[in-house]
Amino acid sequence: MNLLKNLFSPLYIDPNMVNAGEMNGSGNLMDFLDEPFPDVGTYEDFHTIDWLREKSRDTDRHRKITSKSKESIWEFIKSLLDAWSGWVVMLLIGLLAGTLAGVIDLAVDWMTDLKEGVCLSAFWYSHEQCCWTSNETTFDDRDKCPQWQKWSELLVNQSEGASAYILNYFLYILWALCFAFLAVSLVRVFAPYACGSGIPEIKTILSGFIIRGYLGKWTLLIKTVTLVLVVSSGLSLGKEGPLVHVACCCGNFFSSLFSKYSKNEGKRREVLSAAAAAGVSVAFGAPIGGVLFSLEEVSYYFPLKTLWRSFFAALVAAFTLRSINPFGNSRLVLFYVEYHTPWYMAELFPFILLGVFGGLWGTLFIRCNIAWCRRRKTTRLGKYPVLEVIVITAITAIIAYPNPYTRRSTSELISELFNDCGALESSQLCDYINDPNMTRPVDDIPDRPAGPGVYTAMWQLALALVFKIVITIFTFGMKIPSGLFIPSMLAYHHHDWIIFRNWCRPGADCVTPGLYAMVGAAACLGGVTRMTVSLVVIMFELTGGLEYIVPLMAAAVTSKWVADAFGKEGIYEAHIHLNGYPFLDVKDEFTHRTLATDVMRPRRGEAPLSVLTQDSMTVEDVETLIKETDYNGFPVVVSKDSERLIGFAQRRELILAIKNARQRQDGVVSNSIVYFTEDPPELPPNSPHPLKLRRILNLSPFTVTDHTPMETVVDIFRKLGLRQCLVTRSGRLLGIITKKDVLRHMAQMANQDPESIMFN
Amino acid sequence: MNLLKNLFSPLYIDPNMVNAGEMNGSGNLMDFLDEPFPDVGTYEDFHTIDWLREKSRDTDRHRKITSKSKESIWEFIKSLLDAWSGWVVMLLIGLLAGTLAGVIDLAVDWMTDLKEGVCLSAFWYSHEQCCWTSNETTFDDRDKCPQWQKWSELLVNQSEGASAYILNYFLYILWALCFAFLAVSLVRVFAPYACGSGIPEIKTILSGFIIRGYLGKWTLLIKTVTLVLVVSSGLSLGKEGPLVHVACCCGNFFSSLFSKYSKNEGKRREVLSAAAAAGVSVAFGAPIGGVLFSLEEVSYYFPLKTLWRSFFAALVAAFTLRSINPFGNSRLVLFYVEYHTPWYMAELFPFILLGVFGGLWGTLFIRCNIAWCRRRKTTRLGKYPVLEVIVITAITAIIAYPNPYTRRSTSELISELFNDCGALESSQLCDYINDPNMTRPVDDIPDRPAGPGVYTAMWQLALALVFKIVITIFTFGMKIPSGLFIPSMLAYHHHDWIIFRNWCRPGADCVTPGLYAMVGAAACLGGVTRMTVSLVVIMFELTGGLEYIVPLMAAAVTSKWVADAFGKEGIYEAHIHLNGYPFLDVKDEFTHRTLATDVMRPRRGEAPLSVLTQDSMTVEDVETLIKETDYNGFPVVVSKDSERLIGFAQRRELILAIKNARQRQDGVVSNSIVYFTEDPPELPPNSPHPLKLRRILNLSPFTVTDHTPMETVVDIFRKLGLRQCLVTRSGRLLGIITKKDVLRHMAQMANQDPESIMFN
């Protein structure tokens, strides 16, 4: 109370106020169960947290530290450390996430190449590194050097010919199967939560759900290892979603080192939001895009403080990755594009067409993927996850090898597609015929007729596109780490090249194929994930093409509109619904004309609400009530007749308090009266010792009237992060609405099965 | 009700629920005052809106349109148009804001040059345009051409010499004074709200405050014209803040064309948030930065839908501006930097130092500016705004002319500072000695010794820096349109050049002076406005330097930390407090241990709360209560004894309803009983006709218990945008907390004068 008094200047002091504060403050501070018993304030697994309560607990902690900090220098330093711990955690997350991403990149590089051959000078070198260290390479022949040997060269000393091809093909498939089998086994044995992209679950966790172990140390370790294996095995998966999961595991690990975050589920989620930003930041080398992704796509509660910290974490992570330099170009940017040619207004039309295509593809992808995943969940298919992975890997490897565009790693391919053809480019895509009789300079590429290589490349790319689209549908959602970003980007649109080559008059440097690939990628990703701003920012950070923000935006917004016309859910929300997580989406608008009274329990005709009274129930009564019901908490009323609300007691804390009292407090027996009032009356000397439980009573339960429209109730649940809300009419308690009730009601109004919401 | 029934699938229908919905729905739909009377649902000037109520009104509107859309094709088209009107408004705002920004840029260019001379071939050409059209210019002498004549050349036919200099000097001052006088007069006569940067007021308006006319058509017109005049007059002001105001005026104008936005203050604010993004977008050519600025700095309620729309508006605006092409370089980017040299880790230290400097400068600036503005408000100084402007303009012009760095327009200067010296650069800053004996290539500039021009430039820049710092303090807040961004950027730090020139070993291309200017600018702006992410994004969009995001971030975060250590308020918040606007900042954390009961009215010993009863007061009683109090609304209770809360009636609507009923409903006299109940009892035949007011009763008033901690109450007010909240204890009404009470309590706890919060 001294603190409070100090805070009042003599000028504006209000004696009433201070007295009131003192009275109530002491009422809160010095309650009857003086020692807090263990586990109070924690939540059960698969339950929803109460954001308001977490916030107020954090403020209490903060106040305690502030008041202590005036006592001694040591306490002052401790309070400073506490204030800075947020930034320290961010720094650590950034460092670890950046390092892990670098290690993963290097390992994937090596293992992808291992499927094709090995470096003789040092087996741990990837193809590129191997030839880099060899001095015999010329500029024309960068990919070929004696140190790097294909398996056929090494084993049977043949580099060309049918038998060598078949041997390489076979070993390619074998390696892929090994990697995939190892990955799926590791996941099944050590960390079942390490499977999938992780983003749906992280969204749910950030919205205030508890899934113990989902972000644990084992998950971190296994996910990192299996991610490398899976991406190397050639499955049509990106490492971007899983990198977000990995970063969130880092966030969870470091937040467990600081009691400020480990003991408060709300604060912990602030750290996790920032970690998600760091994850995207390292996945794409896009720190700003990462922050926006966290804001737009994953986070639920994103205060401005988290914005700054996320940005810091994202920058540190990106910077660490740059220092490790896995791409060997000392840029933050993964697919740096060199071209800066302007685009023309008329090109907006094909960009919008790309957007339409992306939207349609997104819708199709989500529908097919969800149908497949539902099938997996409900039929016998789901019982053989290892077999499923092996089969898909085998199919992928068999089909992928003959086509050079699917054989190599996805990010290499994207990098080639995004790039414009230079005069020295050796790629098949740039095989334009150089006519020596032409007077135009050699770098004026669009004028030259396309060589046969371009047409071959077209076909191969078209086949690659179809194959990737189909196989990705089956791959996403398997029991291995899987991401969508890079595969989605692949689904770019190359047909426009041909259309536009005829449209352009010769001599005009009019179309940049790489730009179309970039815009197409954005459109497809937009259709699948329904991101807009963060997507555009990620794309232009990824490529460094600040000029192309308008085309990217046009495609992203069109894609979102088109996809939204067929269904509002992005792939992550669809997976959340598929799993029945209690996720109250901020994007959904609830527009039905229902009232709180329609949603609250008990419904008409049901048994009345289970309540506690403030001073007339015995310990046994309470225990019976707890045993007979499975509610998470009970409203406390003055008496069963008046039904005037006093507060709300959590089930978990009631159980703990009674157990604790029976063990440690003498005289508390089954007959003891339970008091939730401030001052229990004097009891006759022979009566059993009363049990005073005001300490665990939430004196400020959230109430709405029965006439409150459900849209307001939904809004309150969303914005304040409530777990439950009591319904009153003219001061009398009528019922209760939990988050599950709200979600079930919303599902019902949207004509979905309300029983799909499974958790509380 | 048919709609509701249709929405239930036969599978999940719950008869209880539908019945309940029907009953309550009809209770709401068909109330007793069937025709809505005019002005219901509007707010008075200088009052706060109720966000929840606005939102629920919008949902009602939406529902009505959806249900109508099934009736006919025409209604269906109308509903589609309504759904698209948001995007249409964004498009229009983008187009108008971009156009206005382009026109302003062109006009400022012309008028700034008009102070020095005139173009003979066409007087409406600026210096650059004039010489552009002239064919006689060579590359070396871009700035000199015969068509462009200084005033001395034109009037006395002298271009050199003391008398010509004095004549030019005199005319420069004269023009500046003319412009400034014209501007201040226009503002005073036509649109007093057009003064200042506008950002503090826009923040307040977006948080839910009504200031009629602040975003009106007159303000738009006058602000645009005077902005040109003021910036041309050479005052140390940027056009960026005012451009945000102009864009918001555009937003307000277009939203008044669509009833969806014009009739709903909440929806209107969504449009205004997006308009603010468009304003920053055109001010800096930074669409993403604009959106983040709106999110981080200005907006209060920023749902994801607004994020997308803001981005769209910002892009359209930037694109329109690019099409107008006022800078003649067909880029979105204002100060495009050409250099892409990497920076070194060791440089982080000076960057952080720049951040510290920026933070200190920000604190100093805010303190001095607020002190000066307070002085202006409280002393006689404030009575002579015209004189003040004239004096400051005269001082600025007199001091600015002799120094070439202050004479030219601020954006030209920044553009020069940000740029690296090329071999062909004619700027004095690049006057390095070209030693022909040296073997190094000519473009390896850092090795060459600095020529005398560089040292002259250093001195002039140092003087310019000091002058700009001092004069900006006095200028910001005058009664003319004024922005801070560009002047703050100016305060860059050039000393590092000298330090580092010695530190670098010759031959190493180690320091990029332009980068230091950029980082210094970011640090200063960060110190003044306390932005972080949006600032960094704006800076790198402004310059196109994606590589320098880490240095920029380091400086911005350091600057914010340093400045926050001296005081949490940025310049805009400081001005909001100075003006006493009711702004509940999302960034402030309330950590005091007070309860709702300490803040609510009535306090202990005060008269009891003025309440209405549901069925026992006459029209006269109500009128007396309205006359005797000035509260904005009254709780309605069952009876004065029981104090059980039924609902809440707004003062404004009570007055309107009673007035309306007395005029139009027969039999409603002073003796009529006012009923807030659903079914008034049958009255004896002779008794006066009852007045049924359930229609205007808010049946879901927001309540908290008296034990609710104030931090929770503050959170609820912030997140739900409440206007007032009722306080109950075990079902009985105890008191009321308004937004003003909350703000006053917060001011009191922060040791400030609670009376400084002036509005409700």
Helix content of chain A: 55-70%
Strand order of the largest sheet of chain A: 3-5-6-9
Summing up helix and strand content along with how strands pair, one would put the structural category of chain A as mainly alpha
Sequence stretches where pLDDT stays below 50 over 5 or more residues of chain A: 1-35, 421-450, 490-510
Q: Could you tell me how far the N terminus lies from the C terminus of chain A, measured between alpha carbons in angstroms?
A: 39 Å
Q: Taking all residues together, what is the mean pLDDT of chain A?
A: 76
Number of separate helices of chain A: 30
CATH C-level of the largest domain in chain A:
Mainly Alpha
CA gyration radius of chain A, whole angstroms: 31 Å
Largest interface: A-B, 97 and 96 residues
Residues in β-strands, percent of chain A = 5-15%
Please tally the β strands of chain A and state the result: 12
At the fold tier of CATH, the topology name of the largest domain in chain A is Clc chloride channel
Quaternary structure annotation: homodimer
CATH architectural category of the largest domain in chain A: Orthogonal Bundle
Membrane topology (chains A, B): Multi-pass membrane protein
Keywords (chains A, B): Antiport, ATP-binding, CBS domain, Chloride, Endosome, Ion transport, Membrane, Nucleotide-binding, Repeat, Transmembrane, Transmembrane helix, Transport
GO molecular function (chains A, B): antiporter activity; ATP binding; voltage-gated chloride channel activity
Subcellular location (chains A, B): Endosome membrane; Membrane
